[in-house]
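In response to reviewer comment 3 from the previous cycle, which asked for concrete evidence that the modeling workflow produces usable outputs, we include below a single protein chain processed end to end. The sequence was submitted unchanged, and the resulting structure tokens are shown without manual editing.
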Amino acid sequence: MCGIAGIVSQNGALLDGRLKPMIDAQAHRGPDAWGVWSDDACALGHRRLAIIDLSEAGRQPMSNAGGDILITFNGEIYNFQQLRRELESLGHRFRTRTDTEAIIYAYEQWGVDCLSKLRGMFAFGVWDQRRRRLFLARDRVGKKPLFYAQFGNRFLFASELQGILADKDVPREVVPQAIDSYLAYGYVPAPHTAFKGIFKLPPAHYLTLDLKDSGFEKRVERYWSLDYQPKLRISEEEACETLREKMTEAVRLRMISDVPLGAFLSGGIDSSIVVGLMAKLSETRVKTFSIGFNEAAYNETDHARRIAERWDTDHHEFIVEPDALSILPKLVRHYGEPYADSSAIPTFYVSQMTRRHVTVALNGDGGDESFAGYERYLANDIAERMRAVPGVAMAARALGHIIPDSINPKSRVRQARRFLSVASRPMAERYPRWVTFFQDDTRRQFYRPEFADHLNGQSDGWLKSLLTGLGSALEPVDAAMAVDVASYLPYDLLVKVDITTMANSLEARSPFLDHEVMEFAARLPVGIKFRDRRLKHLLKRAFADLLPPENVNRRKMGFGVPVGQWFRGPLRELLRDALLSQQSLKRGYFREPEVRRLVDEHLERRADHSFQLWNLLMLELWHREFLCS
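The workflow returned the following structure tokens.
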């Protein structure tokens, strides 16, 4: 796990001098070593967090034996030992024990088709001197980030936005449409970023940049997609057995490390399964790490402790206090662009605590999106069935409008109201309203006219297009999971974990995101994953021996943060200063009365606007950090 950066230039001027600040800005991603390589057209840089082959031989940038193919690589290739044996049988000779070298020779052997051979998480840049070609690639699900930009005769790439922005000639101009997307989703979807001219390479894509006499020739292509059809003809017993085998293998591969490793443990189904499998595979006690809150509705430490006791792990806990939010400026700086998932706070602190003991931590990310773990999947299924009965959906919508709202964000009454009010809509309109911070019509009322004039369309349209693109072939549960795999998973959850772990020089590994596990889960009949409307039915059955009943038979809590209470307490003054100051209001995005209404209604307990206010707060803090005003 590392930080990478590179520059390709048409004139090759002063590449080394421009590259060093780019890797220095990412030093937290790789505190163990750094390296720079360059020729007359390309410079590659690397910050190393040593995990496999800790010797000097593992330093990057790394070359092939001929010295004409260079790589800077971030991530882990879990099948590198198998891949190495295959490449050796084809005549390639290895000089290190690293997974990095396996990528070099895989590219030398198969070109861009080498990506189909890689099992893991990765973002890398390969410079092919003979072809004068840069080859950038990102893993299938989007575990590892990769940003790029072209300004004039220079093309830049880096693991984090800070790496691109470290170039003093890169402008910091905000994209209005990106602000609109952020208000909707809490993140800016790829390929865009909040900065004009800087882009994200989407998951499961590669980019080739050929340096020609006439300039750059750039091509971006998708190399993998998750297929939900055709469905496997398989019994539930067979599905349990196969899933057990695939997950055990995924965990085993992710336990290969030359440095100490442990696991995040929330007490939920997914992380509990990972820890249970680790305990069965390990000859020593597994180290586990949990985070909690003093607010009981958000605290899962009792459930995590139960799993830790079940497997006799070396367990560690940390309680997040409101004053821990002094970390906010640091988080804003590391994310590089507006990001509104408040669970980044506990994720940062559990990463910080974990790094004191280990360098690698396994987690349960991805279990929900493959095995129907979110309540909105159940809601989507119920709503679609209701729409099939004449009159029922419209009656539900009318009922939703008369149910009183609640200021408790976890209230079942509030959730019922939210469900019923949109249940009658088609899925492409309904689902976005469940996963957005500010809905399209709300944002339009919120914006000042002069800002709205800069917007070229509805940000909600992106999510709607994802749903529409699925057609009618998928059942509602599969459709919702497919959209989350293309949106919420890569641009929210995986960004959160990558940034918070790497800010603490910690590598996070996710067995549920093994592409072979995901491909198997996607093609399972919905009735096996989601029997009798029971979330995670297959997981609970396949791993029943690893899960105490108390952990299985409880409502999913999620990794939420009590920001609504904090806003009415220790964060009250920060909220008012950030959102109602002249510095904030003069930005020209929002109507002052609308912002003031949200703040006042929340502080006076007339409504709960926790998510919207957090969204606005992080946007303002981002402006102050990156735009110097």
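The longest helix spans residues 236-254. We consider this sufficient to address the reviewer's concern, and the full set will be provided in the supplementary archive.
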